[in-house]
Predict the structure.
Amino acid sequence: MATYEFNLSMDELKKRTHKDYLVTKKFLTPESVEYKSLALGDKTALIHLVRAAAILEKINMQIDCKHNLPFKEFLESEVEKGNEQAKLTKILFDAQKGINAIDSMSNPIRLAKGIDQKPGKGVYPEDLSKEEFHSVLIRMLKEGKIDEVRAILTQRSMVVRDEENLKGIDYIDYFKEDFSKIADELEKAAFVSTNQDFCEYLKLQVAALRTADPMLDAYADKKWATLQDTPLEFTITRENYEDEMTGTIVENEELSTMLKEYGISPIPKDFLGGRVGIVNKKGTQALMAIKKYLPILADNMPYKDEYEQTISIQSDAKQTMVDVDMVMASGDVGEYRGGITLAENLPNSDKLSLTIGGGRRNVYHRQIRFISDKAKLQERLDAILDKEQQKYYLDEADHWFTIGHENAHSLGPKESSEALGKYRNIIEENKADMGALAFVDLLTQLGMYTEEQRLQIIVTFVADNFLKSKPTMSQAHRVRTVMQNYYMYNRGVYSLTQDGKIHVNIDKVVPAAQEMLSEIIRIQIDGDFNKAEKYVQDNFVWTPEMDLIAQKLQKVNKTLNGRLETELADMLLNS
């Protein structure tokens, strides 16, 4: 067994695992009415779904870092020996689901000495530099190894060394034994679950896990995106925010030109997660209110005639939405690394299902968005928001905004924007935020929101859009927040009062969002890396105003890390 040296001292570990610094999100318990109300067949299916999600976590840990599983084994061994440092380290390891993470202050967390985060995570060879990566691909293309390069640059492959070359192995083949076990569990779930549509989806997913064929994934994704009225939720999430290596290809003009000649798109690698939950019918019904407006929003998108959208202007939106009471979040979707996912809009634009007529599906995570400490929330508002505008702040309005954000992912150019390289995800997340904000007035006019809700969404968005510290460029979700704050400050969207509180100039918010949305869509259409880089760098500016609010936030919110408490899932896993 491999041995490691702990990187965090006992004092640091005690601090980071203290309840003031480690927030806990509580998922469903065995006593939850949502679980008790399920039919027997669905209760049995849940056992198999959480087992499948647990295996997915094992797979994603290897995709994330080659040392994760050996380090986990080392920790468990040391915990058995009574090692207190190992016990506290394991709390953080289980929370962030890996050795390396970034906390809410944008500081890197390294649980083992000498194990740093690599641009290619665990997907590429650990010792592969960007320069060698590019040169090997160029040489392989010149030698006529076109198919081999194509296999390296799919979002589905693990990349290994093959003498002087590199080799891409589809992750279904690379992790064949574990994916086969997941397929077995899903097959059992499909046998007992009470909903025919859900069972059909699980069977399609089983086929995709047994054979390395992207089209099988596409069939499963297409079916999953139609699920609306099911008691259970199970998703294998596949998103490519973590891979920083593949995105560097667009910075190499020679390599990019050669790849274009051979019709190869370098798509960042997928990282995998497992979501298990129980669909909340009341919450889902509320979500569906926006669906009828999506074609109207698509018709109002900037430059709408220059691209194809997922949402059709002429027909019913291929967009399903569910609010889910969470049982388990494993792998990529459950990593608490400075924050955790509130909702997801999938499949992403690089997925094959969207080319065969498939739609998208939004899944919202109820337990993650719940605010457990209202007193703490009020303390934060008193510290940063103009008292006269606190009446407009509503935590539920953040959920309304998130609904707009997730649906905005389905608006705009349908084609992938791999040409934007490492800025691709920053630009896309920026688009989703500005899309949500730009249409607030229109949706108010259409009757989706009341005038009071309009004010609540606008003020809540601006107040919540400030961070505790300046993020790193690898944090796409946070970089776009700084960009928006800088952009809006320059347009008078907000100002600071004499005592350093945020005052929102409400009527300026939506016009500024519309302006920024147009600029973002233009960049996505053009697919110009240099334009994207300039746009991000011009707007990723940490101002004195942001720093002042950050200092106030740090005083009222000590949280550095977070974790999930999953009593129901734990019980089912041990049943």
Notes: Residues 270-565 form one domain.
